């Protein structure tokens, strides 16, 4: 396990958990990998207790498995959890799109356009992490534009497994296609077309229905039902 780049200070269980969660979602810690309390604690320079607490929290997220007498292992990606989160996101974000199409807050729509530009730049350089971070900001801005920031916070907590899949799929599939879908959503929002905005959002979030079986077939050891 590569822990040389940890720079958490002061370190707490929450900070260690957030750092580990991010690395799992980005694929730096792949499914099936064993992670060591001793190794992480030594690298950060803290006792094992906060690291143990972070591991427990990671397990409660469904991202790790604590196996008695054997250690802690990164969990496989749950297809059921991915599809459940996708279903909820579609239902919620389709409604958010309708709301924003009716109000068309110019500043927020301009910020969404800025994110599309950042996604294009990240795609050109092959920076998948930056691409996905911008993708998340694009969708968060939709919630903000609808006056529903708390809704995005709830969605963000739901999509831990989905994020793991996204980091795999964004390396395998055409990111330009996702950029095009974002542009279609934004164009419909700017026109104030609620029906087209909803349809564009649903089409975009249903893309994962195609990606899940393809990624599971390509890397079966990474996935579980």
TrEMBL record:
Q: Which residues form the HTH gntR-type domain?
A: 10-77
Gene3D superfamilies annotated for this entry? GntR ligand-binding domain-like, Winged helix-like DNA-binding domain superfamily/Winged helix DNA-binding domain
PROSITE patterns recorded for this chain? HTH_GNTR
Asked if Transcription is a keyword of the record, the answer is yes
A Pfam family it matches? GntR
The family database entries (InterPro entries) matched by this protein are listed as: GntR_C, TF_FadR/GntR_C, Tscrpt_reg_HTH_GntR, WH-like_DNA-bd_sf, WH_DNA-bd_sf
Entry keywords, A to Z: DNA-binding, Transcription, Transcription regulation
**Name of the protein this chain belongs to:** GntR family transcriptional regulator
Its ancestry begins with: Bacteria, Pseudomonadati, Pseudomonadota, Alphaproteobacteria, Rhodobacterales
């Amino acid at each position: 396990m590569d822990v040389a780049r940890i720079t958490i200070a002061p370190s707490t269980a929450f900070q260690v958990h957030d750092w580990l969660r991010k690395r799992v979602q980005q694929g730096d810690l792949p499914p099936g990998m064993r992670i060591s309390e001793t190794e992480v604690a030594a690298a950060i320079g803290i006792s094992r207790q906060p690291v143990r607490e972070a591991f427990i929290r990671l397990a409660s997220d469904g991202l790790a498995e604590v196996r008695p007498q054997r250690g802690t292992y990164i969990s496989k990606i749950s297809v059921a959890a991915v599809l459940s989160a996708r279903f909820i996101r579609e239902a919620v974000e389709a409604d958010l799109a309708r709301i924003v199409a009716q109000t068309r807050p110019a500043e927020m729509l301009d910020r969404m356009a800025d994110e599309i530009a950042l996604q294009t730049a990240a795609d050109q350089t092959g920076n998948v992490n930056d691409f996905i971070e911008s993708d998340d900001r694009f969708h968060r801005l939709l919630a903000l534009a609808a006056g529903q920031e708390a809704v995005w916070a709830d969605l963000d907590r739901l999509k831990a497994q989905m994020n793991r899949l996204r980091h795999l799929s964004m390396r395998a599939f055409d990111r330009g296609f996702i950029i095009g879908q974002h542009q279609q959503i934004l164009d419909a929002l700017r026109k104030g077309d609620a029906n087209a905005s909803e349809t564009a959002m649903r089409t975009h979030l249903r893309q994962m229905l195609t990606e899940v079986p393809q990624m599971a077939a390509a890397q079966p050891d990474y996935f579980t039902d």
